[in-house]
Amino acid sequence: MAISRDKKQTLVAELTELLKDAKGTAFARYQGLSVAELQELRKAAREANVVIKVVKNRLVHVALQSVDTYKETETDLLVGQLVYAISAEDEVMPAKVLDTFAKTHPALQLAGGFSGEGLSINEADIKALAGLPSKDQLIAEVVAQLLSPVHDTVGALGGNLHGLLDGIEAKAAA
């Protein structure tokens, strides 16, 4: 059954709002996935603060043209049945969610994406992006690197103090 004009306008408005705030968007071919599997993907995405949309590519074209950032974006990759993952918080998470789900569901195949700056991302680049650590992981690694010298210094000073106390205790006992 065809979608009514009002429903299409509502979908385009929703997509436009999502794309305006998006830091990253990834899309994948989903032909062969069941409704239950798509619901499972939506649940996994929701936990990662990623929005999953299954929308006709023509409506995505219209929504992209409505957002200034994406007016010049190349849309040649928008072919076939695609599921879109959009995040306003993390550039990597949409690709990571789709890639993680694709590992257990081979019917889902990453196809490409869009950066928050309006650039089109091809299949190879979106797969490489999916392999990157998330923003939270990178922040944790930086904090660990910054705290490492502090931990080393405290450990060294603690060891020296223990040695000094052991020496004093040995002198006192002798």
β content, as a range? 5-15%
Number of strands: 5
Largest sheet: 5 strands, antiparallel
Helix-and-strand structural type: alpha+beta
Q: Radius of gyration over alpha carbons? A: 25 Å
- Report the oligomer: single chain
Low-confidence stretches: none
Helix fraction, binned, reads 55-70%
| Mean pLDDT level | 86
**Order of SSEs:** HEHEHEHEEHH
The end-to-end distance, rounded to whole angstroms, is: 96 Å
- Strand neighbour order, sheet with most strands: 2-3-1-4-5
Tell me, what's the shape? elongated
Contiguous helical run count: 6
Q: Would you give an account of this structure?
A:
The structure is a single chain. The chain has 174 residues and is an alpha+beta fold. The protein contains 6 helices and 5 strands; from the N terminus they run H-E-H-E-H-E-H-E-E-H-H. The protein has helices at 5-21, 35-47, 57-66, 93-104, 123-130, 135-173, and strands at residues 24-29, 51-54, 82-87, 109-115, 120-121. A 5-stranded antiparallel sheet has the order 2-3-1-4-5, with helices on both faces. The chain is elongated, with a radius of gyration of 25 Å. The termini are far apart. The mean pLDDT is 86.
